[in-house]
Amino acid sequence: MDIGVGIPSAVPAATAHEVLEAARRAERHGFASIGAIDRLVYPNYEPLIALAAAAAVTERVRLTTAVLIVPYRQNAALLAKQAASIDALSGGRLVLGVAIGARSDDYEASGVPTHGRGRRLEEMLHEMDRIWAGEERGIAGAIGPEPVNGRPTLVTGGNADAAFERAARHGDGWIAGGGTPQGYETSVEKMRAAWQAANRSGSPRMMAMAYCALGPAARDAADAWVHSYYGFAGAYADTVAARVATDQGALRDMVQRYAEAGCQELLLFPCSAEPDQVDLLAEAVL
């Protein structure tokens, strides 16, 4: 199983140095990928921009949105161009993870209703596929640049049956968000069944992301960040905080359980912006 690490682009007050240094250290330690998570109404860096900056200071690691909330962005042509630009400039390293999201304030701030967001995601993915395929749109022709491998690697999130079906129709795989290894094997089975029903060849890429914090202040960092980021969810924030792996033993156990459940790539997102978290993660799991 490949192991990736999240850059602290969604940790409030994270500096440019901390975000980029985390990316540098991730590559230096040999992590397979770096990831960024998405919010709009929150003091985070926009994930595509954060990953573009990280691409400039790295050469090998994959660049993953885990995940990008697509429907409130509305303009599929612009998003397709942004994704293709990062992919081309990074040498084909973008993994575009997408989903519908659950936070109404992000949609309200965008002037987009939450109702129908699944259908809107489908429409935008169709449009982005056509753009990446080079369909002409105007006097100058296609909307470029061309992605390195025809299109960026695309994975979708979500736990409803429709999400697995969407992944099979449009994507290269599926990604679980912020959960635990418990139940992941069932998700693998659902994704493989949807893949087969869609008559797809090969097999889907199975991914997941999870939160962690290491070091003497690990529990405090986990509680502070989770209750900030998931404050909209009320008591559910306590559940998420309890899931955070805050010592090496718990982290190694979680990684092993994901691997046994069929996960092929796990992105670990530290709850602290300190770049030393990347070093501690490397010591624990690489």
Explain how this protein is built:
45% of the residues lie in helices and 18% in strands. With 286 residues, it is of the alpha/beta class. It has one domain: Alpha-Beta Barrel (TIM Barrel). The strands form 2 sheets. The chain has an 8-stranded parallel β-barrel, surrounded by 7 helices. Helix 6 links the parallel strand 7 and strand 8 (173-177).
CATH classification, class level:
Alpha Beta
What's the SSE pattern? EHEHEHEHHEEEHEHEHHHEH
Query: Helical residue percent?
Result: 40-55%
Write the CATH homologous superfamily. Answer: Luciferase-like domain
Strand order of the largest sheet: 1-2-3-4-7-8-9-10
Instruction: Indicate the structural class.
Output: alpha/beta
* Overall radius of gyration: 18 Å
CATH topology call:
TIM Barrel
Strand content: 15-25%
Uncertain parts? none
Q: What's the N-to-C terminus distance?
A: 11 Å
Query: Count the helices. How many?
Result: 11
What is the architecture at the second tier of CATH? Answer: Alpha-Beta Barrel
Quaternary structure annotation: single chain
* Sheet of most strands: 8 strands, parallel, barrel
Silhouette: globular
Total individual domains:
1
**What is the mean predicted local confidence, pLDDT?**
97
Q: Based on DSSP secondary structure assignment, what is the total number of beta strands?
A: 10
Any chance you could write out the topology, listing elements then pairs?
Blueprint lengths: L1 E5 L9 H14 L3 E4 L10 H10 L5 E8 L6 H14 L4 E6 L4 H7 L6 H16 L3 E3 L2 E2 L10 E5 L3 H10 L2 E5 L6 H14 L7 E8 L5 H12 L6 H8 L4 H14 L3 E6 L5 H10 L1
Parallel strand pairs: 1-2, 1-10, 2-3, 3-4, 4-7, 7-8, 8-9, 9-10
Antiparallel strand pairs: 5-6
